[in-house]
């Protein structure tokens, strides 16, 4: 099912017994974060703080904090179900006759049904504040004691390319400095930063709109590492199986989700930077303070009674790992379109998306594992993968016990490792300089004579299938 907006999703969670309302007053400084952190670590429910100190706006947290909830948010029993739909789009069957061509038409027509629709009025503009806009009504959370201040952590940041007008929607944390200014923490590799460089080259202010509190599919779409020419709102429509309704902002030429809770309209000046951070990040460490662009709020539109959503990040497991796992499963068909020998992918929770990346492959020739390593480092945000480990196709790379067992037994460190230099994630603190460092590939596949392995490779220990089935049938006879 597709959720129309955030409150529709919250109501559905409550009906399932997965929403905890907290009527007691809590502070947005550390207290709410500690409560949410305990809920996430325990696999607990989503939380709605009904009374937040200093504001009348409720605070929603832990919206995606279990794999089951992540699936529910996207309207599927399994994330692989979405992957199958993606596969239908990127790997359509080639029709061989006229009848098969006719059968394909409905599938192609459905894609057009997901294009965003523009509306003239919207719930997100029930209240318009232009003369004296302020963020002070929002229960913005300070998560960790060493944070530089409160941060908006689930923003949908809308920008346009100054040359093409093409839209980008990203999720970039926003350090709140005061009622009208925030930091804009877009990393150099992200779409928002690319648009910023375009406006900087023109010496023009960059219009920016920030949506708070969209429907869950749209929130996820803003976090997804889409190809550069793919519209996040079209992708959200694909996930929802119905188009996202957009409305034009009141003061700038940007369209935003009509059913969002709050919209911040404003600009970023190319000549202005300010210290942003520190921030307790998803690495489990503080990302250090640095100079980033500044977002100026010039207009606030909102619902009459908005709900403010937030997430917290820190040492995993945290809520963001489930967003990451959704990306892993949903984008596997796209990866296989480029690297078809890949049979599965696992970005383990402990690897915080970019430290470890495991791939199983259909190994076909000598050096195949190294070919896949290089391909992975050339693909979008996978270029940040610090340790890329390649396994044979019969290895269950979702089982960490098996993964470690195979690495320990199959790898000769001198022969099977490859170290390269290249771009690293902006949050990588171990590299000697920011944004650039080394990465390691590990070949954990079986080796043969064609790869210079002169010895006999041992077989896995396994009981014959007929004995396994026999013992299974007679298990109760044995008295177990």
Describe, in plain words, how this protein is organized in 3D.
The protein has two domains: 6-309, Pnp Oxidase, Chain A (Roll); 339-451, 3-Layer(aba) Sandwich (UbiD C-terminal domain-like), CATH 3.40.1670. With 480 residues, it is an alpha+beta fold. Strands 5, 7, 8, 10, 11, 14 and 17 form a seven-stranded antiparallel sheet that branches. The protein has a five-stranded mixed sheet with strand order 19-20-21-23-22, sandwiched between helices. It has helices at 6-15, 31-41, 67-73, 79-90, 98-112, 191-202, 216-223, 232-240, 320-330, 332-338, 368-376, 400-410, 413-416, 465-474; strands at residues 19-26, 46-52, 59-61, 117-119, 127-129, 151-152, 155-160, 167-170, 174-175, 181-183, 206-212, 245-248, 255-257, 262-276, 279-280, 286-287, 290-302, 308-309, 342-346, 356-361, 387-392, 417-423, 436-443. β7 and β8 (167-170) form a beta hairpin. The protein is 28% helix and 25% strand. α4 packs parallel to α10 and α7 packs across α8 (232-240). The mean pLDDT is 92. The protein has 14 helices and 23 strands.
């Amino acid at each position: 099912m597709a959720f129309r907006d955030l409150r529709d999703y919250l109501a559905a969670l409550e009906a399932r017994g997965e929403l905890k309302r907290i009527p007691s007053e809590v502070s947005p400084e550390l207290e709410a974060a500690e409560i949410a952190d305990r809920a996430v670590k325990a696999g607990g429910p989503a939380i709605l703080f009904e009374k937040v100190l200093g504001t009348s706006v409720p605070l929603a947290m832990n919206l995606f904090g279990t794999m089951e909830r992540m699936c529910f948010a996207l309207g599927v029993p399994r994330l692989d179900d979405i992957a199958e739909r993606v596969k239908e789009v990127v790997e359509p069957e080639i029709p061989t006759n006229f009848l098969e061509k006719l059968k394909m038409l409905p599938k192609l027509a459905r894609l057009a049904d997901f294009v965003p629709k523009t509306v003239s009025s919207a719930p997100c503009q029930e209240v318009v504040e232009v003369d004296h806009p302020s963020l002070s009504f929002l229960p913005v959370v300070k998560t960790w004691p060493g944070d530089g201040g409160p941060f908006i952590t689930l923003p949908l940041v809308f920008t346009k390319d100054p040359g093409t007008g093409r839209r980008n929607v990203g999720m970039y944390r926003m350090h709140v400095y005061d009622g009208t200014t925030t930091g804009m923490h877009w990393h150099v590799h992200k779409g928002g930063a690319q648009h910023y460089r375009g406006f900087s080259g023109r010496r023009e202010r960059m219009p920016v709109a920030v949506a708070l509190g969209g429907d869950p599919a749209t929130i996820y779409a803003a976090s997804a590492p889409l190809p550069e020419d793919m519209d996040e709102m079209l992708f959200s429509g694909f996930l929802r199986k119905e188009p996202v309704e957009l409305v034009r902002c009141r003061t700038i030429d940007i369209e935003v989700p009509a059913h969002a809770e709050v919209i911040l309209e404003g600009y970023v000046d190319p000549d202005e930077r300010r210290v942003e951070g520190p921030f307790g990040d998803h690495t489990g460490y503080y990302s250090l303070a640095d100079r980033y662009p500044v977002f100026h709020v010039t207009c606030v539109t909102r619902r009459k009674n908005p709900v403010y959503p937030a997430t917290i990040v820190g040492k995993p497991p945290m809520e963001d790992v489930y967003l990451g796992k959704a990306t892993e499963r949903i984008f596997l068909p796209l990866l296989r379109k480029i690297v078809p020998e890949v049979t599965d992918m696992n970005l383990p929770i402990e690897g915080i998306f970019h430290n470890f990346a495991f791939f199983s492959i259909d190994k076909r020739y000598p050096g195949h594992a190294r070919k896949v390593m290089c391909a992975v480092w050339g693909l979008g945000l996978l270029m940040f993968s610090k340790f890329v480990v390649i396994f044979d196709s019969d290895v269950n790379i979702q089982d960490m016990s098996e993964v470690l067992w195979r690495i320990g037994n199959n790898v000769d460190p001198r022969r099977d490792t490859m170290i390269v230099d290249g771009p690293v994630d902006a949050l990588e603190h171990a590299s000697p300089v920011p944004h650039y460092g080394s990465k390691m590939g590990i070949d954990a596949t079986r080796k043969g004579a064609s790869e210079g392995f002169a010895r006999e490779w041992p077989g896995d220990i396994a009981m014959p299938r007929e004995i396994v089935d026999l013992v299974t049938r007679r298990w109760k006879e044995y008295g177990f």
